[in-house]
Amino acid sequence: GDSVTQMEGPVTLSEEAFLTINCTYTATGYPSLFWYVQYPGEGLQLLLKATKADDKGSNKGFEATYRKETTSFHLEKGSVQVSDSAVYFCALLSPIYSGGGADGLTFGKGTHLIIQP
Amino acid sequence: EAGVTQFPSHSVIEKGQTVTLRCDPISGHDNLYWYRRVMGKEIKFLLHFVKESKQDESGMPNNRFLAERTGGTYSTLKVQPAELEDSGVYFCASSLRQDYNEQFFGPGTRLTVL
B88: number of CA atoms within 13 Å, CB side? Predict the structure, then answer.
């Protein structure tokens, strides 16, 4: 079945540091890939997505590139802020009728990011 | 536009009791999903409705869980009888289409079974 593996953390960085959160996946067919973020006390929000190989998703200074050859979708940001402190979830969605998984998103365990001033 | 709402935000019950969680999706979203996150584990898919029909319930853990979506609007998830391992955060999400369209998540219901 489908699966997503991501570094769990917590990851603690200083403000303005460079961020990378690794995410790799196993899936049948060609899934769509997502990063969701959960800020303290809130629900999950879509941060960015990519639907095919070599696509780059970007939002709020965050980027991730769909790498089919390495089955990866690593999240990066050049300069993090205290307000980026949150839990980040990598997820995939298998294509309809792929026969490879359930209808819903498959999530990684989440990475708790802590940014210190 | 109102987002996905869930009720209650927290529920504490004793083992053997019944609990019903409610989800109101974004208006017009035919697709509704339930997920669960048990402490320390991944967020796991439970089931998917298209309007009032169960499209995929492969993630439902056992027959103590019953989900309904009468009329294709809001949905309920009933746990009867609740067990200790049912504790966790239950998320609901909705989307306009089933494909790579964004799923909008509610804030979740934290269920604690004592």
Answer: 19
